[in-house]
Amino acid sequence: MSGVEVIRGREARRAEGARRARGRLVRRHLLVYAGLLPFILIAVFPVFWMAVTAFKTDNDLVNPTVFPFWFHQPPTITHFTYLFQHTYYGDWIYNTMVIAACVSAITLLVAVPAGYALARVGLPGAENMGIAIFLGYLIPPILLFIPLSRVVGLTHLIDTKWALVLVYPTFTVPYCTWLLSGFFKTVPPEIEEAAQVDGCGRLSALLRTVIPVSWPGILTAVIFAFTLTMQDFLYSLVFVSVSDQKPVPLGVATDLIRGDVYYWGSLMAGALLVGIPVAILYSFFLDQFISGITSAAVK
Amino acid sequence: MAEVELVTGGRAAARRGTFTRDRLVFGYALLAPAVLYMCLLVGVPFFFSLYLSLSDATVGSQVARFVGFQNFIAIFQDSTFRMALRNTVMFTVIAGICKGLLGTLMAFLLIQEVGGKKFIRSLIVLPWTLPVAISALAWKWMFDPQFSAINYVGVRLGLIHGWPNWIGEPGLAMAAVIAVNVWRGFPFAAIVLMAAFSAVPLELLDAGKVDGATFFHRYRYIVIPVVAPILFVGLLFDTVFTLSDLSIVYLLTFGGPMGTTEILPTRAFEIGIQAGALGRGAAIALVLFPILLPVVYFLLRNLRRRETL
Q1: Separation of alpha carbons B262 and B83, rounded Å
Q2: Which of A114, A131, A142 sits opposite B303 (nearest CB)?
Q3: Any idea which fold A87-298 has?
Q4: Spatial contact of B236 and B185, defined as CB atoms under 8 Å apart
Q5: How far is A229 from chain B (nearest CA, A)?
Q6: B285 to chain A: nearest residue by CA?
Q7: pTM
Q8: What mean pLDDT do residues B122-128 have?
Q9: How far is B104 from chain A (nearest CA, A)?
Q10: 10 Å Cβ neighbour count for A47?
Q11: What stretches of B199-309 show up as alpha helix (H) in DSSP?
Q12: What residue spans define the domains of chain A?
């Protein structure tokens, strides 16, 4: 056997090996995709079905003889126009925006100073105070809604959106304080020290140096204040029963049913129009949410 | 010379004293609004609810009499409440196990290096990120007795026989409610686990491989000790969310048919708000407290560990 043949044999073997490796890779990819496919279908299908329902004409929707998951009459936006012309949907969106903006503002005003104090000032017992504040997040609304109905009753805010502005910070403040205190710990202390050496007071050092470099954390806190507000159902159900004061999830769930009849087209249109933007916004910040609540275990 | 040093030293110490006091005042002033708010709207209501549960307070009346443990005795004599308690425990346990299993499976698939992983992930987290009331409505439509999309698919695939009314039949309604909770919660479990897997030190795995540790040993001694506590914390959080969520049952079945999907949150809402018996409603909600207590204890212990690290 000549040397050349040996080399050729080696090359062929190597090519064979590479082909086999590529085959293995392709097989593994296919296997993973095949495994993920049912999960994707299950996760996405209800949303797809909502979308199809929202754009179907009523006749098309209740026609039992056709394949239900596609259009047999041209898509329509009548369910959406109906929402804005014949229901309080416009008010609900406005209420949701006002509630979210006010809750975010209150949360920041309270949670930024508290998070900073816990992370930086070196108070004795800061750790226990931080945990005590976070405990508020673990006392779920279900334990509080009955006594809070009395408290909200005292303030005469009941049946207005301001009742929700008052109670929603009970879950946004503890979560955002916790998140921000973790964030402030990562800001290098040298920058405030430098500002203080330059003659800034403590407060102005905080406002001029720490806050400006912390805006990603603050933005995250605002997003969570907004999305956690959107996830609530119980408090709005208990505290607001006047139609034009409701936020969107409650309004869609309780006001779009007349008698016993569900108007699925407009129900799904109303649900989708708000649900999708919230879901997308939330999914961008999901990793931070997860690491916010589990970071102890990760370290 | 020494005297001068002593004097400046003393002055510095005095300055440091006011420095510390200023700092403490500053710190507590920053903390005060949060503490005050949480005391007034979480602490006070919580203790107020303990008081309510021992009184005969109703929505209408301004005065409430102290009645001792009468509310608790009464609710435990109520068969609907007992069913609600049993359902709550069953619902939480079964849904928790399903979410853990499905989440683990999905996390294993999602940590594989395949193309389009980010996109797939963003689709799969949709159930968790949609507002819960909105997804409950979508499922109510999917379970619609007449136009059920699930039946349509199931019958054509030969998985379902007849045309079951998912939210109207006692045996099926609970399964439907659990299914929606699992649908909503499994992406959370999966994302938590993916975070956990990414925390596994790769160097250690490689070192283990070099040192001849078997696949099983690498899992047993490197991966599981890192992943297990994170999954545990994720499931604890999920338990808090599941125990306290009323919207799925409220919107899907309203506790029916015949109380078979009644859970403590819906029962507390019916008695405390709809029937106006605040005291009794508070008592029902407080039955959740001993169930939540161990969960909260473990979560707080975990947080304390974060603080000390």
Answers
A1: 7
A2: A131
A3: MetI-like fold (1.10.3720)
A4: no
A5: 9
A6: A143
A7: 0.86
A8: 90
A9: 12
A10: 22
A11: 202-210, 215-218, 224-243, 247-252, 264-269, 278-286, 288-308
A12: 3-61, 87-298
